[in-house]
Please model this.
Amino acid sequence: MPIPSAVPSRAELIDHLVRTRTAGNVATPREINLSHYRKLASGDRHMWLGLDLGNRWTDERDVLAVMVERCGVNSDPQHRSGQDTIAPELTVDGLERMAAVLRTAAEARARVLFATGHPGALLEVHSATASALHAAGCEIVEIPDGLHVDDQTVVQLCDVAMLERAARLRHTHSPAPMAAILDGMVREGRPLPDLVVADHGWTGHAGQCGIETVGYADCNDPALFLGEVEGTIKAVVPLDDHITNPRFYAPMTAYLLAAAGLTAQF
Model:
C-alpha cells in the first residue's frame, strides 16, 4: 500500500486512515469497547489511565455517548458485538487540536516531554514530533536516570520515554511510569515539563498533575476522551494505536507537523 511522502491534504489523509484501518473500520471488536466502558463506569482504576474520574462517569451510557461524539464509535447501544469504528474526520480534527497546542509550545520554546505505552507502534510518531519541536527551539525533557516501575526500567530512546524489561520495550497502560518520571524530577529540583505529548496512562497521569497534556487514544481507551471533555487533557487524537505497519502513521505525522507550522525531521 503506497504511503505518500508529501504532506497529504485533509481528504487524502482521511482516505489513507480508512485504507490502513488507522480509523474507519478498526480492528478492536465492539465487545472489547463496551466491556472497557462498563469497567470504567464501575470504577475500575486500570481503565482510568491515571485520571481521577471520581463518581462523574458511573453510567456506561454516558461513556458511550462521549465515545460517539469524540471518537466516532457506533452510536447504537444495542450494537454489542462485531465491528466498531473510529470516525476518520474526528481523527483529523484531533490532529488539528493537537497541532494548535504544538504551535503554541514552539512559539514559547516550551520544555516538552514525550512518552509512549505503545513503543511498537507510536515511537516514530512521537520521535518525529520531538525532533520537529527541538528544531523549532523547544527543549525536549530528559528523564531522570535509574527509574524503575515494578521489575521494569523507564528508559528514553529517540527522545521518547517508555518501559523496558529484559532488553524488550514494553506495552503498558499504567500511569506509574509517568509518576516515576515526574516524582524523579521533583526530587532533583527540576521544573516539571510545560507540555507532555504521550498516550495511555502516561497521558492521564500528566494531565491529572495539572501539566498541559495531549495524546493519542484508541476506541477501547475511553478515559482520555473523558479527560478531554473535562479539560484535564488538552487534546486527544482517536486512532487505532497499534496497526500492523507503523509506517502507515507517517502521513498522519506529516499532517500534524504541517498543521503546527513545524518542519518534519524524518
Q: What stands out?
A: The longest strand covers residues 152-157. The chain has a mean pLDDT of 96. The CA atoms of residues 125 and 248 lie 10 Å apart. The two ends are 20 Å apart (CA to CA).
